[in-house]
Amino acid sequence: MIRLEGVTKVYDGGIVAARDVDLDIRKGAFVFLVGPSGSGKSTLIRLCLREERLTKGVIWVAGKDISTLPNWKIPYLRRSVGTVFQDFKLLPSKTVGENVAFALEVIGRPRAVARRQVQQVLELVGLSTKADRYPHQLSGGEQQRVSIARAFVNRPPILLADEPTGNLDPATSVGIMRLLDRINRTGTTVMMATHDHAIVDAMQRRVVQLDRGRVVRDQRESGYEGNLDSTIEGKA
Amino acid sequence: MTRLWYLFGEALTSFRRNVLVVSAAILAVFISLALAFSALVFNELVNLNTIRWQQGNHIIVWLQDDLGPIAHTDLLGQILAYDEVKSADYFNKAQAYQEFQEMFADNPAILDEVDPNVLPASIRIELTDVDLYESVQFRLVGEPVVRKIDVQVEAIERLLSVTRALSAIGIGLVVLLTTSAVVLIANTIRMAIYARREEVGIMKLVGAGNWFIRIPFILEGIIEGLIGGALAVGAVLFGHYILSGTSTDFFIRLQVSGDFLLRWSVAIFLFGGFAGFIGSSLGLRRFLKV
Predict the structure, then answer these.
(1) How far is B207 from chain A (nearest CA, A)?
(2) pLDDT tens digits for A158-216?
(3) Which domains can be identified in chain B, with CATH numbers?
(4) For the purposes of burial, counting CB atoms within 10 Å of the CB of B113, is it exposed (0-12), middle (13-18) or buried (19 or more)?
(5) Which of B2, B6, B290 sits opposite A74 (nearest CB)?
(6) Residue B92: exposed, middle, or buried by beta-carbon count in 10 A (0-12, 13-18, 19+)?
(7) ipTM > 0.90 (yes/no)
(8) Which domains does chain A have, with CATH numbers?
(9) Contact state of B290 with A150 under an 8 Å Cβ cutoff
(10) pLDDT at A88
């Protein structure tokens, strides 16, 4: 579903955010990107969305080589990739329902279809009774559920999450992770950047650890720190 | 179709949300175009009021009646043969009286006083170059049939230079003001985008195409331009209506033709929309890099 080959990203000013990264994520996988701030987690996610252009290497997303994708096709790439961020990125002037419907409006889905899909996805995230509320009337956890609903409403094959629990307390985070897990079980490939030890430890999924732009560990069914016996790659 | 309404709705939403900025843009277009339109009307008024001096009648030769019409036509033929003369027209006494009647149509008292026979016939000369009036004048002075020569060249020259200057200033103003209108709209759209940059960012994130993002802003610019243009047209038409009502002096016309007003009203209105389109396109250019 997502494949990175020799991906290198050097920002203007010479900061290297990704250094020769190879990564292969199969359809339906759930992968954590872990590492300290500045290790390159967010950069990898931004590269997969073509919010940044990579300096070297190749990235395949949903069967397409996005490193050579022309600019006008980028919107189509983003329609097949749902995104969730630490700061929710909800529109304050729109209600919960409108925020979710927004993702369908921009891709030109007919109103009636959109309404039904919005209702369904709000039920999935447990907010069907709050469709007419505004984001500021919701708790942080609820707002993040709305943003997950928006990311998932057109059933993209891939969901990218950048620190989705970064602004939430541990109990709320668990709820968000349950939701992402449910979405993953529908067959959606999930890649999530985080530095929340507790969550990674609890989930026991594939963990890719980054350090200064390099992959230093790639382990199946692991915790945040990992155990050395099952290390596939890297020098930890 | 629903998409179109959606985009239109987005443009209107932006309108409501940035009342201040939007009114600034509309005001800018309104002021620029109202001034530009006024300059055009003013220019037209100057033209209307000077046109009878600009063409023809550089020299008027008043003729003696007693030598009869044959002497008059002889002189006309002679004048027409001069190189300096572009054209010359003979005005007989009847025509002179008719002109006099038209000039004093509002003033029957004068008309009653004047005997049609008093008004002399004349030859009206248009020169190829107004500077050559002296040689024509010189040759005509000794003719027995000539009663009096009126040379209007100097006044014409002065008038023409004033008209030219006014036209140039008017055109300069129009260009300057419409440019400023475009720049102000560009700036307004830029501010509108800045105010909505979060929303634009989210639109891009969920896969909105560039045109889907652009169209509401462009529509907004066009609507602002059209409103500003309509206000400008309204203001100038109203001003013209008031002004034309005050004109009591026969010699100065303060009213331009309805045809002129209609043509330019439509042009100014559409230009408002066009300025909005150009302005919003300029304002958008920098923002929508993916």
Answers:
(1) 4
(2) 999 999 999 899 999 999 999 999 999 999 999 999 989 999 999 999 999 999 999 99
(3) 2-52+158-285 (no CATH), 58-151 (3.30.70.3040)
(4) exposed
(5) B290
(6) middle
(7) no
(8) 1-80+158-236 (3.40.50.300), 90-155 (no CATH)
(9) no
(10) 92
